[in-house]
Amino acid sequence: MQNHPDLVKLEQVSVRFGRQETLKNISLSLHDNCITTLIGPNGAGKTTLVRVVLGLIKPTSGSLWCTPGLKVGYMPQKLQIDKTMPLTVKRFLTLGAQNASAALLEKTLDQVGAQHLLMHSFHDLSGGETQRVMLARALLRDPKLLVLDEPVQGVDVNGQTELYALITAIREQRKCGILMISHDLHLVMSSTDHVICLNQHVCCSGHPARVSNDPSFIELFGRSQANAFALYNHQHDHCHDTHGEVIVDHPSLAEKEVITRA
Ligand SMILES: Nc1ncnc2c1ncn2[C@@H]1O[C@H](COP(=O)(O)OP(=O)(O)OP(=O)(O)O)[C@@H](O)[C@H]1O
């Protein structure tokens, strides 16, 4: 992607667990100041791919390159914390960042709209509050790459929209790269620059508008997901080239484009 330097590059990465090949020949780049969203059915290997990027799983074959000194902030899908252990949000945040000043904690919580939660019990937070605090924890390292594994899980629909807007705002403020796993295609499409559809291998990838027109996208997600995307996209009155750019004089513009529901 022009003007957005590579932060991470995977070339022909495969991962095998015993006899099961979970990832097959994955090549991709993550860029500075760019949101990349990984979508795919359950068991497609999304978390495994994220763990490869984080350096937690060594590829069985292929190579991984990271820009030297890359700082990564990670928001995991699940965090197991013993509920009998008293834990304030402040304490939770400082567990992974002992040297963080009170001012930095407040500023970071402020950025995710959770400044009022500093002295609350972590165990008593709502789903949306928990995700905001987890996001703050990932941001405390001032990462150049933010990795978010299903950041809106356990959050109601309105809260999901707010969280995706927050993630977009964070990218705009910090100009960091973001790699995000999501199942919410129609919510994510408007706030992502690059989509990768994964099902052990990369089925299709590119600008959201290009991916949404790819037959393997519909094959992978089926009718209901394709319909959800069509609903999001229903005001479509233009065509895209293979990079997702609008084609100004496309012949089909003579008739207003009709979205095909597979
Ligand atoms: N450490 C491991 N050892 C053995 N098998 C594993 C390991 N980690 C993941 N797997 C297997 O790899 C496959 C892909 O798992 P992964 O968690 O990456 O999928 P996913 O796309 O993130 O799924 P979901 O959407 O359900 O979270 C699954 O079959 C899983 O059981």
UniProtKB/TrEMBL annotation:
GO terms under biological process: response to zinc ion; zinc ion transport
Domain ABC transporter: from-to ranges: 8-224
PROSITE patterns, A to Z: ABC_TRANSPORTER_2 (PS50893)
Alphabetical UniProt keywords: ATP-binding, Cell inner membrane, Cell membrane, Ion transport, Membrane, Nucleotide-binding, Translocase, Transport, Zinc, Zinc transport
Keyword Zinc: yes
MF terms (GO), sorted A to Z: ATP binding; ATP hydrolysis activity
InterPro entries with a match to the protein in the record: AAA+_ATPase, ABC_transporter-like_ATP-bd, Metal_Ion_Import_ABC, P-loop_NTPase
PANTHER family named in the record: METAL TRANSPORT SYSTEM ATP-BINDING PROTEIN TM_0124-RELATED, ZINC IMPORT ATP-BINDING PROTEIN ZNUC
Protein's recorded name: Zinc ABC transporter ATP-binding protein ZnuC
Annotated organism of origin: Nitrincola tibetensis
Phylogenetic classification of the source organism: Bacteria, Pseudomonadati, Pseudomonadota, Gammaproteobacteria, Oceanospirillales
